[in-house]
Write a structure and sequence with these properties.
Layout (H helix, E strand, L loop, with lengths): L4 H13 L14 E3 L2 E3 L20 E3 L2 E3 L6 H4 L2 E5 L4 E5 L10 E2 L3 E7 L2 E6 L4 E6 L4 E7 L6 E7 L2 E6 L4 E6 L3 E7 L10 E8 L2 E7 L9 E6 L11 E5 L8 E2 L2 E6 L5 E6 L2 E2 L11 E6 L4 E2 L4 E2 L10 E4 L2 E9 L7 E10 L6 E2 L3 E2 L4 E7 L2 E6 L5 E5 L4 E6 L13 E6 L2
Antiparallel strand pairs: 1-2, 3-4, 5-6, 5-36, 6-7, 8-9, 9-10, 10-11, 12-13, 13-14, 14-15, 16-17, 17-18, 18-19, 20-23, 21-22, 22-24, 24-25, 24-26, 27-28, 28-29, 29-30, 29-31, 32-33, 33-34, 34-35
């Protein structure tokens, strides 16, 4: 006679409990259990990308894929990836800043992001987002932004990529599998001219987007707050603004540049270029940092003066409770040359941010990445990439050829990112 299922269930449950489930291993957050062993799918030779997927002899497991390191050294030895705007290519650099593979060309790279272990690049001078494969030095377009000619920043929230489209003053969501997934206009009814959206970051189901005035204009100077309770966002997603006009140095435009969220999402930090109000090719004051409380969506206290050693601040990275800011103004038109170039540490452990001693650099630094315990900074005027040791607060080494100039012009390292 067949035993009823409802009679078997308690017995099966007891057998299951007695078979060792209570003593099953607990793996670290970045590991999975494969055949009773905790492994890193990103680097385990016998479980590369998934349990049981072994790499053949001579191959290495890098970022969850089996790679021939001799044929494609960048996939195995790259520490940081540089976006070289003038030469229209992406270059992988080792920890010693030497090239690990031939550059990937025809990308007009402006900004990087990594989603699910995959590197993506936005074309600053074009209208596309592409995936980049360091294993075979190729790139594949995943989205085209109709009519755009200026993508300022690329970021990740959830399972989507996001970008700031300065051509249309829009915030755009991109699904790597299907292309453009949603778009929100950042133009307000009160704008005389559309804003130029630049850097952004995310906290508490909101995007905080730096808004700078178009060249020759004085407004808006703000941070747009875009509601992301529903993703991808619809054109009707709520958008509010935090005015930054009161936080500039006297006689300067605050010109919001980059945004970085704290690890706990309670605050976001915004760098202000503080350009001259009458001439944006001249620094109008010391660089400044604004702290925004993401609960109230309001600026906390006064702007933090980053000092005379920091003009035209832009990129930021967090190293524990220390915020590093990349600085440097270069006068392309006049005779002032380079001013205020280097890295500035800001201690966030106290009740108010405290600016530390700047590490000066012979370049205007505009991009920044923290990889393997070292800071890598890219120059806006020379194409140099510099390596700093944040624990010793000094320059380790530099490369003046990371992004070589095109012809007689300078060279712009438009972004840096740790190799995935």
């Amino acid at each position: 006679m067949t035993t009823p299922l409802k009679t078997l269930l308690p017995t099966l449950l007891l057998l299951s409990l007695g078979s060792g489930c209570s003593s099953e291993k607990t793996c670290a957050s970045d590991e999975v259990l494969c055949s009773g062993t905790c492994v890193l799918l990103s680097s385990d030779l016998d479980n590369c990308g998934s349990c049981g997927r072994a790499c053949s002899s001579g191959l290495s497991c890098q970022a969850g894929g089996c790679v021939d390191c001799l044929a494609h050294p960048a996939a195995c030895t790259a520490a940081v990836v540089a976006a070289c705007f003038e030469t229209d290519d992406v270059r992988a650099l080792g920890a010693d800043l030497s090239y690990t593979e031939a550059p990937m060309t025809s990308l007009t790279p402006g900004s990087f992001a990594v989603l699910a272990g995959q590197l993506y690049v936005a074309s600053n001078g074009g209208a596309s987002v592409s995936s980049v494969d360091l294993a075979d030095a190729t790139a594949s377009m995943v989205a085209s932004i109709t009519g755009a000619s200026d993508i300022e920043h690329l970021g990740v929230y959830g399972s989507l990529l996001y970008l700031s489209d300065a051509t249309h003053a829009a915030f755009v969501a991109v699904d790597p599998a299907t292309g453009v997934a949603g778009e929100v206009s950042l133009i307000a009814a009160s704008d005389v001219t559309p804003p130029s959206p630049e850097g952004f970051d995310f906290a508490h189901e909101k995007a905080y987007v730096a808004l700078a005035p178009q060249y020759g204009q004085t407004a808006p100077n703000a941070v747009a707050v875009v509601g992301l309770s529903t993703t991808p966002p619809s054109p009707s997603a709520p958008v509010t603004r935090i005015d930054l006009t009161p936080y500039a140095a006297p006689g300067a435009l605050p010109h919001a540049s980059r945004v970085l969220a704290a690890a706990d999402g309670k605050h976001v930090y915004v760098t202000l270029n503080d350009l001259d109000v009458n001439d944006e090719t001249v620094a109008g004051g010391h660089g400044r940092l604004v702290v925004i409380d993401t609960t109230a969506d309001a600026v906390v206290g006064n702007a933090v003066d980053l000092g005379s050693a920091c003009l035209d601040p832009s990129a930021m990275v967090l190293d524990g409770t220390v915020l590093w800011v990349a600085c440097g103004f270069y006068d392309y038109i006049g005779t002032k040359g380079l001013e205020g170039g280097g890295l500035v540490p800001v201690d966030l452990s106290g009740s108010t941010p405290t600016v530390g001693k700047a590490i000066s650099a012979p370049h205007a630094l505009g991009s920044l990445a923290l990889c393997g315990g070292f800071l890598y900074a890219g120059a806006t005027e020379s194409g140099a990439v510099l390596k700093f040791d944040p624990t010793a607060a000094n320059l380790v080494t530099s490369s003046t050829t990371a992004c070589p100039p095109a012809g007689s012009s300078g060279a712009f390292v438009s972004d840096l990112i740790c190799a995935p």
